[in-house]
Write a structure and sequence with these properties.
With 470 residues, this protein is mostly helical. The chain has three domains: 126 residues, Rossmann fold (3-Layer(aba) Sandwich), CATH 3.40.50.620; 122 residues, Alpha Horseshoe (Serine Threonine Protein Phosphatase 5, Tetratricopeptide repeat), CATH 1.25.40; 164 residues, DNA Cyclobutane Dipyrimidine Photolyase, subunit A, domain 3, CATH 1.10.579.10. The protein contains 21 helices and five strands. Helix 4 packs parallel to helix 5 and helix 12 crosses helix 17. The radius of gyration is 23 Å and the shape is globular. It binds flavin-adenine dinucleotide (FAD). Flavin-adenine dinucleotide binds next to helix 10, helix 12, helix 15 and helix 17.
Length: 470
């Protein structure tokens, strides 16, 4: 063998620059590192690890068709990865390793240590960019600085995408049969229990499933996306995030599918489509921020002054929030959706994050960690970005005084209480008016808790705390 393609969060053969370049270099071996201890340290969710393993099995089949064997390196954490990868290179006479970039600080440290070790062996290392439309760090202000505000960043991205849209990386040709075979893919790993099997049909694995999902969305629901994306009872968004996070589909494939449904128009044409493309750019923005600010993966707020917020230590309130027992029906519906699906509607992510960080004044990093430990689409950059946006600690965050009121929001986004009825079934019999804020008697009858905080008083407290930061 000549080359290794090291798969990480890019579990696909299509539109994968690392795989294409490795195979262009010579006969290629694919590698994936299973590192349960590291994953636990990163709080990767069981539902996500299961999704990775299922997609790895699908990737193995796709690689089989290209005659590329997939080897598994078992390394509890990333400490031993450089040595184990170097040993694999030696065993198979590999002289080049290709991989797609990852931006977390531990990922970067792992890669630097690997490059140094491979260098000792005379093995070259090439990094590619397969998980963003544009290379993070390549879109800068007129002064050559990293953008901190989304709107001008997105404008600059659109200009770049208009003049130089990302081209599809062709699927490599099948190589000659390799002298080595693939390793077995485990169905589970130590420390991770298998999630409910119902999730397997909710989130089927493989590139075909991912592409079919985006195509179905682009041919139908995307038309109403601008209006329906904020209605959680409607299946109005693509639900492609787990596939993007694991790299089972590339952002380029998503963009091109959307453009194909819009006569190639990026900025005009169908509003649902242009709005959806803007959401892809939010994902891009958070990757760009993570790449420019390594401290983000070390839990630092983008606005340093917010490091001085006297966050409250309130384990009971935090437990009620995680369990979907806050007594705010829309919030509890969101938290229960997360626990059951491993996914939560974007509007709800904002609402629950704001209740935690503003009304409860609990450190947003606790919420960020809880999301990561339970999301199938947990993504370091987007999760951090979403939390810092909601907590008003982020680069381009919601102003601290714009605190969403869950009850008002509930009446606006779920007027008939359909979403609440689905996820908080004990309230299902209440009428459309009461379901958003049941009376004390209705709560007692349903076995549903009282609200854990007074919204008005806690809003005032949050405003005072943020105002005091100056
Ligand atoms: C507190 C909080 C935490 C979040 N954590 C994550 C996370 O861990 N992983 C994750 O992928 N997204 C996260 N998001 C962003 C967003 O909620 C999800 O991407 C979206 O709900 C996924 O559903 P979808 O695929 O149907 O999205 P669609 O509406 O169909 O959007 C298409 C794609 O665009 C991207 N996107 C959409 N909205 C955003 C956004 N606000 N920020 C960044 N990218 C976006 C996603 O990749 C998404 O799959 C978070 C948002 C908040 C407020």
């Amino acid at each position: 063998m000549n080359a290794i393609c090291w798969f990480r969060t890019d579990l696909r053969v299509h539109d994968n620059p690392a795989l294409a370049e490795a195979m262009a270099y010579g006969p290629t071996l694919a590698v994936f590192v299973i590192s349960p201890v590291q994953w636990q340290a990163h709080r990767e969710a069981p539902v996500k690890v299961d999704f990775w393993l299922r997609n790895l099995a699908a990737l193995q089949q796709a690689l089989d068709a290209l005659n590329v064997p997939l080897k598994i390196i078992h390394s509890d954490d990333w400490q031993d990865v450089p040595e184990k990868l170097a040993a694999l290179c030696k065993a198979h006479a590999v002289t080049a390793v290709h991989a797609n970039a990852e931006w977390g600080i531990n990922e970067r440290r792992r890669d630097i240590a690997t490059v140094e070790r491979l260098d000792d062996e005379g093995v070259s290392w090439t990094v590619h960019h397969g998980s963003s439309l544009l290379i993070p760090g390549s879109v800068v202000t007129g002064k050559g600085e990293a953008y901190k505000v989304f709107t001008p960043y997105a404008r600059a991205c659109r200009e770049r995408l208009q003049s130089a849209p990302p081209r599809t990386v062709p699927l490599p040709h099948k190589q000659a049969k390799a002298p080595t075979s693939s390793d077995a893919i485990p169905k589970s790993v130590p420390g991770y229990h298998a999630p409910d099997r119902a999730l397997h049909s909710m989130w089927p694995a493989g590139e075909d499933a991912a592409l079919a999902r985006v195509e179905a969305f682009a041919n139908d629901a995307i038309a109403h996306y601008k209006t329906e994306r904020d209605v959680p009872a409607v299946d109005g968004t693509s639900r492609i995030s787990p596939y993007l996070a694991a790299g089972v589909i590339s952002p380029g494939q998503c963009l091109r599918t959307a453009l194909a449904a819009n006569h190639g128009e990026l900025d005009s044409g169908k509003q649902g489509i242009t709005t959806w493309i803007t959401e892809l750019l939010w994902r891009e923005f958070y990757q760009h921020l993570m790449a420019a600010n390594p401290s983000l993966s070390m839990h630092a707020p983008m606005k340093p002054a917010t490091g001085g917020i006297p966050w409250r230590d309130d384990p009971d309130a935090f437990d009620a929030w995680t369990a979907g027992r806050t007594g705010f029906p829309i919030i509890d519906a969101g938290m229960r959706q997360l626990m059951e699906m491993g996914w939560m509607h974007n509007r709800l992510r904002m609402l629950v994050a704001m209740l935690l960080s503003k009304n409860l004044l609990i450190d947003w990093r606790k919420g960020e960690a809880w999301f990561m430990a339970n999301l199938i689409d947990g993504d370091l950059a987007s999760n951090n970005g979403g939390w810092q946006w909601s907590a008003s600690t982020g680069a381009d965050a919601v102003p601290y005084f714009r605190i969403f009121n869950p009850e008002t929001q509930s009446r606006n986004i779920d007027p008939q209480g359909r979403y609440i009825r689905k996820w908080v079934p004990e309230l299902a019999d209440l009428n459309d008016r009461d379901i958003h804020a049941p009376s004390a008697q209705q709560r007692r009858d349903a076995g549903y808790p009282e609200a854990i905080v007074d919204l008005k008083a806690t809003r005032k407290r949050a405003l005072e705390v943020f105002k005091a930061l100056g």
